[in-house]
Design a protein that fits this description.
Bound molecules: zinc ion
CATH architecture: 3-Layer(aba) Sandwich
Number of domains: 1
CATH class: Alpha Beta
Shape: globular
CATH topology: Rossmann fold
CATH superfamily: LmbE-like
Radius of gyration: 17 Å
Strand order of the largest sheet: 1-7-8-6-5-2-3-4
Order of helices and strands: EEHEHEHEHHEEHHHE
Number of helices: 8
Structural class: alpha/beta
Low-confidence stretches: none
Oligomer: single chain
Largest sheet: 8 strands, mixed
Length: about 240
């Protein structure tokens, strides 16, 4: 298949990655195979979950769902070799663009000092369709990019410096998986893909609630389609900003 020359290889020469998403399962729907690749190469991967996904399963009330899905995320993070998981405890389903959200994200960026940030698509639609994107995803993307700038400005959120969190200017880019405006790709091996699939398997209750969803086929098809666009066997594609 002809290569999509608009997609370029992502520069993977970084030591610390911060993966920031709205919900447990967001990373596992495409980005986590790349996280597994990087963690396997010695990169420090930390996951930040803005909510606990407590509104994500119709048959399970939020107070039971929050700890269940938190534990599923911890298991998924272990599969890909992440070194830590943090929950910011914003409300699932009603996330708002706010200074509080930007401050919490800027705090995480200053604390972890990543060179790369990974998230998922914040555009209205997904690569390949899939309907209107979730409100929380659409809110998080712009707030996250603003927080990258906030993290580098000593005069914004001065209370963070009072907490010992100095400005951090080292973020080179933010990469959003599953975007319809992909610019870059990461080549994957079968091993990376297997870890990515296993990380979604870890969201046992969530996947069960989807009812007959075949995550293995879904993730393999996406990785093969992305690979075909880029002239490799398997890949994950990202919209890179920064
Ligand atoms: Zn989500």
């Amino acid at each position: 298949m002809r290569n999509d020359r608009s997609l370029t290889v992502l520069d993977e020469d970084f030591q610390r990655v911060l993966a920031v998403v709205a919900h447990p399962d967001d990373l596992e729907f495409g980005a986590s195979a790349a996280l597994a690749k990087w963690a396997g190469n010695g990169t420090e991967v930390t996951q930040v979950l803005v909510t606990r996904g407590e509104a994500g399963i119709d048959s399970i009330a939020p107070e039971q769902c929050a700890p269940l899905r938190s534990n599923e995320q911890l298991a998924a993070a272990r599969v890909v070799g992440a070194s830590g998981v943090e929950f910011l405890d914003f409300p699932d389903g009603t996330l708002e663009y706010s200074l509080e959200l930007r401050r919490a994200l800027a705090r995480a960026i200053r604390a972890h000092r990543p060179e790369a940030i990974v998230s998922i698509n914040f555009r209205e639609t997904f690569d390949g369709g899939g309907g209107f994107n979730h409100a929380d995803h659409r809110v998080l993307g712009p707030a996250l990019m603003d927080a990258v700038r906030d993290a580098d400005n000593r005069w914004v959120f001065p209370e963070l410096r009072d907490q010992g969190l100095e400005p951090w200017s080292g973020v080179r880019f933010t990469a959003f998986a599953s975007s319809p405006y992909a610019t870059h790709f990461v080549e994957l091996t079968e091993e990376h893909l297997a870890l990515g699939i296993a990380s979604l398997d870890a969201h046992e209750a969530y996947v069960a609630a989807l009812g007959g969803f075949d995550q293995k086929t879904f993730l393999r098809n996406n990785a093969e389609a992305a690979g075909a666009r880029c002239g490799v066997a398997l890949a994950t594609i990202f919209e890179v900003i920064g």
